[in-house]
């Protein structure tokens, strides 16, 4: 799908920053005659639709006339639109003109703020993943953190977009955030200085002199170019003697569907990459790989964890189904839906869930995630923690529909005998705590590196195209 435009709007396969409804409080109330309209018999006829639209108009007029303080018409209508979309699933939302501009900037790979991918939970702002080398990452913000206050003011009662707007600001300006972290006894107070966020979407280095390591932090318009540059640079650095590639998609929340397709295509010579199934059959699509593997068919290990979502899962699923890579780490997030961004001239855009996506074998990972071929956990604590913070835990998330069609089992890995047995699932006693600035403390990465070296040693001349 390289170079192919998407329609009807920009397709997103990433974690969505959506607004949420404010919590309600109980108190004195007076029944209004208009409430009786809600009890009308529901139906799908056009007359019923018109009656319900009239109900909306009547509620709107009552709010304008009788709410305790004057209301802004645009704010009320936009909140209503948001409520309608949020009632569908966790990833559909309305973006006003400013939010739409911000999203266009972020997909181009540059935006202002703290560098945090966020969603919603319980009225708080939940961190999906801090972006590498940003104020949030350097301050120690972690996936799963709940941001409860901004500059001492509670975020409850704000839409998520309003909270995001408060976190953004002039470069050099300071903000204090209060975090509630699972397992911490008391809230954490962090002071951060805003920066212009230009995340380096692909970080790469050599592990030793023979293994290439590439970490993709998101899928924006720069991702495929950055990956190709990383592989090319490392091949030159080693005199074209790379023995294998580690593709790190851990805590990558996703992004653009076309970039996920192109990244997958970079490693595949042929075959399906991903398909989407929409409400109408004619809107369903399928993407296939084109000849050409930028690694010359080197062995590949893909690292994933619970923060790997959507576009990351498309790549991991495609390479896993084709047995082009060994997927290692922990089960991924499980977001198997595609959002289409539909601009509304002069009024921002709506982000609407329009399709489910399926891996080449026809499996949906919606609510399930990608299960790694070899499980390796980051810490002993992770082995005792229940699976949480996944797509299936989100309110009104789509159900998985694998039971509606036949999903064939994946082909065997066909790895050299005893190779998988060498991989340790848990760090040994006394292992150092993970420090992102010290790769030697990254247990999952170290296991992937050792595995890849053993794999390439067992099959040193593997170059034939699939």
Structural features, described:
The chain is 25% helix and 22% strand. The protein has 466 residues and is an alpha+beta fold. It folds into two domains: 112-197, Roll (Pdz3 Domain), CATH 2.30.42; 202-338 and 355-458, Alpha-Beta Complex (2-enoyl-CoA Hydratase, Chain A, domain 1). Strand 6 and strand 7 form a beta hairpin. Helix 6 packs parallel to helix 7 (257-267) and helix 7 (257-267) packs parallel to helix 8 (311-321).
Q: Could you state the order of secondary-structure elements as H and E?
A: EHHEHEEEHEEHEEEEEHEHEEEHEEEEHH
Whole-number mean pLDDT: 86
Largest sheet: number of strands, sense, barrel closure:
6 strands, antiparallel
Percentage beta strand: 15-25%
> How many runs of DSSP E, i.e. beta strands?
20
Q: Give the structural class.
A: alpha+beta
CATH topology name of the largest domain: 2-enoyl-CoA Hydratase, Chain A, domain 1
Radius of gyration: 24 Å
Measured between the Cα atoms of the first and last residue, the distance is 20 Å
Q: Helical region count? A: 10
Q: Stretches where pLDDT falls below 50 for ≥5 residues? A: 1-9, 14-43
Name of the CATH first level of the largest domain: Alpha Beta
CATH superfamily of the largest domain: 2-enoyl-CoA Hydratase, Chain A, domain 1
Structural shape: globular
Task: Give the CATH architecture of the largest domain.
Answer: Alpha-Beta Complex
GO molecular function: endopeptidase activity; serine-type peptidase activity
Keywords: Hydrolase, Protease, Serine protease
GO cellular component, one term: outer membrane-bounded periplasmic space
Family: Belongs to the peptidase S41A family.
